[in-house]
Amino acid sequence: MLADHQVHDLTPEDVSSGIAEGRYLLVDVREPNEVAVEAYPDGVVVPLQSFDPAAIPDPKGKQVVFACRSGKRSVTASLAAQAAGLPYDKHLAGGIIGWKAAGLPTKTGG
């Protein structure tokens, strides 16, 4: 059913520089309890468990990039958004695990 949809993998470095340059809006689809422990510095949180593509803020010309813990839920979220007619086909491969492995900063306390 989702055969015509695809999700593009982005590296942590791609996503970090894209955020810094104002090209990407990072949407963190992890649950609030996960985000409270460790969060992406510039992410907006739209939990997958209650995922509503309409809850994603207007990216205002930026490209939406989904992110989660390991890179699985972000793919699910991207496909769900595409199924809802949104052109959001990018995700952070490796999630926050890969983000930290690349030496990129996180913040605590949501």
UniProtKB/TrEMBL annotation:
Domain Rhodanese per the UniProt entry, residue ranges = 20-108
Q: Name one Pfam family in it.
A: Rhodanese
* GO MF, one annotated term: thiosulfate-cyanide sulfurtransferase activity
Q: Which InterPro entries match?
A: Rhodanese-like_dom (IPR001763), Rhodanese-like_dom_sf (IPR036873)
Please report the name of this protein according to its UniProt entry.
Rhodanese
Identify the species of origin.
Bradyrhizobium jicamae
